[in-house]
Amino acid sequence: MSGFTVGDKKAVVTESTPGNQPGSQAMSIQDRIREVQRLSLAPDDKQKRIQKIMQEQNTSNPSRAFAQQSELKQRAQCEHYERKCDLQSPCCGVYFTCRFCHDADDSEGGARLVTGCTSKFDRFKVAKIKCQECHTEQEPSNVCVSCGIKFARSFCNICHVWTKDFIYHCDECGFCRVGKEGKNYSHCKQCDACFEEPHECFVSVRGATVRDEKCPICFELMFNSREGFFFMDCGHQIHHSCFSKSFNQHGNYKCPICKKSVLDMSPVWTAMKAEKAIVQMPEEYRDTKVKIACNDCGEESNTVFHVVGNECMSCGSFNTQNI
Fold this sequence. Notes:
Elements: E1 2-6, E2 9-13, H1 29-38, H2 43-60, H3 62-75, E3 85-88, E4 95-96, H4 99-102, H5 111-114, E5 129-131, E6 137-138, E7 154-156, E8 161-163, E9 167-170, E10 175-178, E11 185-188, E12 193-196, H6 203-206, E13 229-231, E14 237-239, H7 240-250, H8 266-278, E15 289-294, E16 300-304, E17 320-322
Helix pairs in contact: 1-2, 2-3
């Protein structure tokens, strides 16, 4: 039995691995790891074989070993959660600081780059964790069985989430939400998601549940998103951060889907009407009329063309377009 250390990751190697037979030296380390991934083995057995391959590679190529150590140390600086334990991936058996680090792109040091694993990290199947302080492997909990440190402020033994935020597990949603259940968040059965109180249901307006919708800007599924989101007056939903960026950088006050005004624009419309009264159009355009459709009320009307904006004759909005 032998062991080796990559960064702070120590593994015990006891079994032979694919690709270390005579005539297999031409295979790359990535190909050999992919061979292991395709085998019908338990995660622990896969991890041992992968670590064996990496040990052989590091022994024959010390400069590559140093590069791997630096790579893994950099990857260990998780930007998603503040916790003091690593999670063993149920699919490839390698320890990662969280599921997002495992699923990251090659450029971010994800599992595909390090081990060749292409599966998504299933946090519900996590059976082993490792303390970052004493490196003791153990079953999931929030206190190390060896050194006694607390891994994070909050912990869920169903979702296997460790975080500095206050969280609660919602049985209806099937995973944890950020917040304090019963105090500022609750599950709305009509919308089929958790919301901060008070909450106004929009499901009848949209004709769909929250589980079906994506942010119209970043296209992330809203239901299990880590980003906060809200319902616009039109009934569509959007990330707070995505809307703020769109509004602050581009002045976009409209819903990206239906083009209705997201904010109360009545003060803006009043100011534009006053500007229309001051700004005189050239004589050849003064009586020119155009047909418009209002994005806010949905009505069509004929209005006097003006450089300031074309006003809806039904609701007074300037959120209009020519038709």
